[in-house]
Amino acid sequence: MKIVDVKTYSPVYPVKDPFSNAMRTTRERAFGLVEVMTDAGVTGWGEGATVPARRALDAHVIGRNPFDYEVIWEGLHKQGTDTAAISAVDIALWDIMGKALKQPIYQLLGGAFRTRVQAYATGLFRRERPDRTAALVEEARGYVDEGFKAMKMKVGFGPDYDIKNVAAVRRAIGDDILFAVDANCGYDVGTAIAVGQEIAKNNLLWFEEPISADDVEGYIEIRRALKMRISGAEQFRGRWAFRRMIQERALDIIQPDVCVCGGFTEFRKITAMASANHVRVIPHMFGTAIRLTATLHLLAALPDSPRALEPFPTLLEYDMSENALRTELAREPIRHSGGIVAVPQGPGLGIEIDREVLQRYC
User: Fold this and answer.
1) Chain-centroid distance, C-alpha 4
2) CA-CA distance, 49 to 53, in Å (whole number)?
3) Distance in angstroms (rounded) separating the CA atoms of residues 222 and 194
4) What integer is the mean pLDDT of 272-284?
5) CA-to-CA separations, 173 to 107, 112, 125, 131, 163, in angstroms, rounded
6) Domain locations in the chain?
7) CATH 3.20.20.120 given to domain 107-361
8) Fewer Cβ neighbours under 10 Å: the N or C end of the chain?
9) Which residues are designated catalytic?
10) Span 9-65, pLDDT tens digits
């Protein structure tokens, strides 16, 4: 089997109700998708934060056997292709391999520890509302009503906003719901510690990206100062970016994104390094139906850490923000039921792409 063509797509979804994290306001969602075609008629789909240049695809992908995924990965990387773009190709190759072998990707990754994954609702962004606190409380209660047992809220907007609203949401959802917060690198070390000491009183599951993503020393300082888990690294590309953060135990939880870190091939190497250093892995997910499905396969194949009788939950980040490329791109959308998401059982990724939806947003 040989790869005969690769098509790239750059769909954009215009957001009707803009939302903000600590660094930016989102008015549109842009993605990079690839479709890899073979002479056997098997096609694979992948997603990356970017897509590879045509000359890189011609030099290192076209004409190759899709099972040469390591060779293709290294060739693209050596040429200087963005690791996030390699991610798109790599995911598509694993999709092809699964389809060719008539196996879901999680089976190729070593088998499923679970076929149903607990999801946490990612939402609670800052929006332009007359009463932001009341809006956050209403949204959070809605997630509980849908059956979610965990959720994540955006912070990093200043001590007054964060302390007031984290406490309000915790009161609204009660003590039994797992509750994480994400500052999206919005603080310096001192402010992160000061704010963290206050919001930690609300029994938080983790404090995500309080400072610049690559500030290893800063994360070590914060982790030592705060009595809660610290997470991050969703933006990191390739195993080398993760190495020092993992080896120095600067984070309690690393959050590699399969569409940024280098696809399934690189994700496995990153998780092996994390396991060897006793650092927990909970993937980041904020993309289309392809990224959501790829993340589910990874979570199916991810062992519990630690291997306890009552292990820390293996959690899927379930993006609740407006995005038709997540909710409509797959002909049979991935949906939660009571906060639980089933892992697709079909070959490869296990989803069929709706080309009409793709073209609508391209």
Assistant:
1) 30
2) 13
3) 10
4) 97
5) 37, 32, 16, 18, 16
6) 3-102, 107-361
7) yes
8) C
9) 284
10) 999 999 999 999 999 999 999 999 999 999 999 999 999 999 999 999 999 999 999
